[in-house]
């Protein structure tokens, strides 16, 4: 009786998970070494600090006595995801069964993160093994799927369903998500440029030195995606907090004492905003309209069908944004810093109906302005010719025929 063969995807999946974890730990070690500078570190202390940095990047959180860090550093998480994707492209030389490979990689990566969390806990400093394993599972699965699909040009296998309408909804939701995030990134960049002198002053006060300055610069860059998501929350409506009695939304900014990091120079000046700023709240609605406009209905001309698909596309975009915003908040320190970022559920509850409404409106516009204008056989010249014939007085021969 022949022995059962090992599935072909298991070996590359385990290898991808292990190499990705090693690569992420190496990057974390460089960051810790630069941040600590010449401080004396034992090998065990250095190893634990590097492991904790990686785990926090995956969303494990960190508790050190009275200090709690619950915020997910989105930029660092994206970097870990990129490491997994690049490692996958290097490891997976032959085509594999994509869903099975991604699931196996995610499971192995999650186990490695959970074991690392348990091994790195010491004294009053510990990370959550459960959160680390869940975060690693998500990051490892997405990174492995994207990397393998790009390596073998099999991006079509990334679709979660073969349903044509579902694919059309998902495809149309992407431009809406990009529109909101791009608008938020533009606002953050503009505020950074306007307050660059303030950022310089904060940098000078910290005086981090060369190694510490390098680590601080990297940390500020990795914090930009988090600020972008917080700004998106402000555009959607709920805004965000940065400590007790400190909030920012489209009506104004109420700022108390904030962490003295140069990246926080992008925060607006305290006070009530100008009235026109409130118009920025229309960006999510317009983004939803983009989704509804771009949804593909193929050969169907039913308005209700298109409106339904457009609303679904806008709603999916709102759902994705709401989930991203939800994970971007959390504690960043003790006391008043225990509450930072947007509220957990409010952006989701607002973004879904607003962008779904925008999707429905965009679908209506697309139906009357897009589809009808591009019907087969209907050109601008033919429409002009029919209009010209309708307005033109009948010829003599036609008058005879009519009599």
TrEMBL record:
Residues 388-403 have a biased composition (Basic and acidic residues). Residues 375-403 are annotated as: Disordered. The chain crosses the membrane at residues 12-34, 69-92, 98-120, 132-152, 172-194, 214-236, 273-295, 307-332, 344-365. The keyword Kinase does not apply. This is Uncharacterized protein. Keywords: Membrane, Transmembrane, Transmembrane helix. Pfam families: DUF6350.
């Amino acid at each position: 009786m022949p022995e059962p063969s090992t599935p072909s995807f298991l070996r590359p999946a385990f290898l991808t998970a292990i190499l990705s974890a090693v690569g992420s730990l190496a990057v974390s070690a460089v960051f810790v070494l630069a941040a600590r500078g010449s401080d004396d570190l034992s090998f065990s202390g250095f190893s634990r600090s590097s492991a904790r940095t990686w785990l926090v990047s995956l969303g494990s959180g960190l508790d050190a006595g009275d200090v709690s860090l619950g915020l997910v550093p989105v930029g660092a998480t994206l970097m870990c995801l990129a490491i997994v994707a690049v490692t996958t492209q290097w490891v997976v030389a032959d085509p594999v069964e994509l869903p099975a490979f991604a699931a196996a990689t995610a499971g192995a990566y999650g186990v490695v993160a959970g074991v690392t969390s348990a091994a790195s806990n010491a004294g009053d400093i510990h990370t959550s093994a459960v959160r680390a394993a869940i975060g690693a599972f998500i990051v490892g699965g997405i990174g492995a799927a994207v990397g393998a699909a790009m390596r073998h040009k099999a991006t079509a296998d990334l679709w979660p369903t073969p349903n044509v309408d579902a694919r059309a909804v998902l495809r149309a939701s992407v431009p809406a998500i990009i529109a909101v995030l791009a608008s938020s990134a533009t606002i953050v960049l503009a505020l950074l440029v306007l307050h660059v002198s303030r950022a310089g002053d904060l940098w000078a006060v910290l005086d981090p030195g060369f190694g510490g300055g390098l680590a601080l610069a990297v940390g500020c860059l990795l914090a930009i995606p988090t600020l972008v998501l917080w700004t998106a929350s402000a555009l959607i409506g709920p805004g965000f907090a940065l400590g007790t009695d400190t909030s920012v939304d489209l009506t104004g900014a109420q700022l108390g004492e904030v962490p003295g990091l140069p990246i926080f120079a992008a925060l607006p000046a305290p006070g009530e905003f100008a009235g026109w700023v409130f118009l920025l709240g229309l960006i999510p609605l317009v983004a939803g309209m983009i989704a509804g406009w771009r949804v593909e209905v193929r050969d169907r001309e039913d308005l209700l069908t298109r409106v339904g698909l457009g609303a679904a596309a806008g709603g999916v975009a709102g759902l994705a944004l709401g989930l991203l915003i939800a994970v971007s908040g959390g504690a960043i320190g003790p006391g008043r810093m225990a509450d930072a970022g947007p509220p957990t559920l409010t952006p989701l509850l607002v973004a879904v109906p607003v962008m779904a409404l925008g999707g429905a409106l965009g679908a209506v516009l697309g139906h009357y302005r897009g589809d009808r204008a591009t019907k087969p056989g209907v050109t601008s010249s033919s429409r002009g010719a029919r209009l010209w014939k309708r307005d033109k007085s009948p010829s003599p021969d036609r008058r005879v025929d009519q009599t």
